[in-house]
Write a structure and sequence with these properties.
By secondary structure, the chain is mainly α. It is 47% helix and 11% strand.
């Protein structure tokens, strides 16, 4: 993992969103987020956001859109947790409150 490239990017933007089709809970992206947080804390203007698949068993192909990250999940995460996008209305709920609710449900 080349952390230098990520840190260069964080120094320029002050922000970081990590996305993967792996299940979000316990994913490698949380390790990356933790390391970048430690290495580039002074440059961050917003919390590092991680977007991954739901924390369930992989469902049947017909349910892919409910399980794997979709474009709107990423855009809504940017809007709700990193930087509000002017004139944008979220399609999904990606707030920290929703994260806590899903954690309580084990999802």
């Amino acid at each position: 993992m080349n952390y230098e490239k990520l840190i260069e990017s964080v120094k320029k933007t002050g922000k970081l969103l990590l996305a993967s089709d792996a299940a979000e809970r316990g994913s490698f992206l949380h390790t990356v987020a933790s390391n970048v947080h430690t290495l580039a804390f002074d440059y961050l203007d917003a919390p590092i956001a991680v977007v991954g698949s739901r924390n369930w068993i992989t469902p049947a192909a017909e349910m892919e859109e409910l399980y794997f990250p979709q474009t709107e999940w990423i855009i809504d995460t940017v809007h709700e947790r990193i930087l509000p996008l002017q004139g944008y209305s979220p399609v999904t709920v990606q707030t920290t409150g929703e994260m806590l609710r899903k954690n309580r449900l084990g999802v």
